[in-house]
What does this fold into?
Amino acid sequence: MTYLRSGGLLSETTRIAMASGWTRRGSVWIAAFVALIAAVAVAVAVWPNADSQTRMGRQMPPVPVTVADAQQRDVPIFLAGLGTIQASNTIAIRSQIDGTLQSVNFVEGQEVHKGDTLAVIDPRALQAALDQAVAKKAQDQAQLIAAQKDLERFQALARKSFETQQNLDQQQAKVDQLKASIAADQGAIESAQTQLSYATITAPIDGRVGFRQVDAGNIIHANDPNPLTVLTQIRPAVATFTLPQKDLGDVREAMLRGPAPVIAFDQDNVRELAPGELLLVDNQIDQTTSTIRLKARFANEDEKLWPGEFVRVRTEVGVRNGAVTIPPAALQRGPQGIYVWVVTSDNAADQRSVEATLIDDVAVVTKGISAGEHIVVNGQYRLQVGTKVDVTSDRADSARGKAS
It folds into this structure.
């Protein structure tokens, strides 16, 4: 043990004890100070978020949306296929005789009628052949008259036994021969008349002529590879198109119920061209493509359908009565499937799972919504369940939302 020396020095034990006390009190103060700093930092971090959420909840404006009413109506069911328009009749106008083309009596693209003269071939040689046949018949008829009179004389002499039976038989044979010659002459006349009629080329049906392939003054032949022109009848017009094999049953059932209506649209499937009816289904299925060929007829009075044109043909095979329909733009797809946004009576958005099928330009809903409910068709990307909405356009115009 060490005692105090003069000068007031503390003992070693006392000095160590005093140092330990000061160290413990400093640690406590430091720990308290650090805890205070941490608490202030947490408060500063949390308070702005809570305040922001509170202010957002108070100030969030309604989301503008476009809505459409779910409607209940009868929806026709169509099957669509790509097809080609064909003329109901297509005729290559050709010469049936050889000769000089004397005149062409049509204008390219002209509408002609049955019996109209399209072209004339020089008929002089054919007329001469006809005149010869007529003259030959007249000659044989004169000879027949003389032979018949001689036959009458031979018969009178034979009854008196002044003429032999052999001479009588020979004269009878001469008369019969002349009669056969006259019949042959008549056939030659008819043949010459037919050949002469070929010199005038007429339209066999009503239709529209195409390009002129031969000009007047040229020699044409019956076996020329190119026709004089092509005549097409496009009123009515027909369309041949294909459908998948699986649609055969629906098409046949529709035809058994009566005439199955069809509609022709342009190649882009946007503009309606003409209504018509289904004529027939081909008698076999194309096994290479597993498709069936069909033919439809269109009156085509306004000539909107043109031979060779590609069209989309829709065939009506049934009607879904009392179906609930909405614009296709209202359908949304999520992890749980297809859903729509419904506007409730208090102008709040509600998400509703649905079962729907697209039929042409409408969506037929079989489960999830009822007729008369307000369906959002534009502005869905800003919605959450319970979000207040503001309908900014009239519901009757909401079909434009399907473009969104």
About this structure: Helices lie at 12-59, 124-159, 165-197, 248-257.
